[in-house]
Amino acid sequence: MTERTLILLRHAKSDWSGEVSDLERPLADRGLLQAPLAGAWLDRNIGHIDLAVVSPAHRARSTWDIAAGELAETPPIRVDSRGYAASAGELLDVVRELPDEFDTVVLVVHNPGIAGLAELLTGAWIPMPTSTLAVLGLTGPWSDAGRQPAEMLATGRPPEDIPHRHRDR
């Protein structure tokens, strides 16, 4: 069976002080500090990422742009409108449609959908405050995601020491 890694990244803290639409809400100062820490953690612990699937919301795109700046190798990005205000089931559809040529994918989206997706895939509730990463190991093709429990490989919010068990491929 093929081993796949799905990285769930909730966008960094957003700024609610302005008079902009939810879709255009920027990152707060705290979010601007959180996003590069997430990227540095990914670079140190994951390394190669094949694809980033990102919500079209400004805060999600900004989170990924900043995080990706910390990576030695920047993966291609696909902005997917289904990632904005998506339910866990809608996000599962996004995951199941991923091309099997990609082994490691990061999904940068919003709560409550991202926490629901983590629970749907692992069978366990995983809190997903802003900038939290959840690294899941899946077996089989992407189209089978959720049909058997994913393995929780790491979860937490950088710079906290996120428990991680490195897997050799």
UniProtKB/TrEMBL annotation:
Region annotation (Disordered) ranges: 146-169
Pfam family, any one: His_Phos_1
Coiled-coil regions listed in the entry: none
CDD domains with a match to the protein in the record: HP_PGM_like
InterPro entries to which the protein is assigned, alphabetical: His_Pase_superF_clade-1, His_PPase_superfam
Superkingdom of origin organism: Bacteria
Protein name: Histidine phosphatase family protein
Organism field: Cryobacterium breve
